[in-house]
Amino acid sequence: xIVSTTTTLEGRPVKKYLGVVTGEVIVGANLFRDIFAxxxxxxxxxxxxxEEVLSRARQExxxxxxxxxxxxxxxxxxxxxxxxxxxxxxxxxxxxxVSGTAVVT
Length: 105
Hints:
Shape: elongated
Number of helices: 2
Number of strands: 4
Largest sheet: 4 strands, mixed
Pfam families: YbjQ_1
Family: Belongs to the UPF0145 family.
Protein name: UPF0145 protein GRI38_09490
């Protein structure tokens, strides 16, 4: 399945618009990652553990969106938007939400 942030796919005209599809994932950061991230913040550099969690959450949200598009009979999702939001007490959770338009090309 093609997933694109653009509203058109070159060489693949949209035959049918099926509607908006979404995927949302909320993940919590555990204590050990928090401690590691704090140390990384103090000494500088990137926090690889947080990057892993963020990447996994984004992939899962996109996978949910693709499944919804497939259930509608789509073979592509266009106009995809990815949003990130910190939630929970003390920003202890991260929400990744994606949305786009399921289409048949």
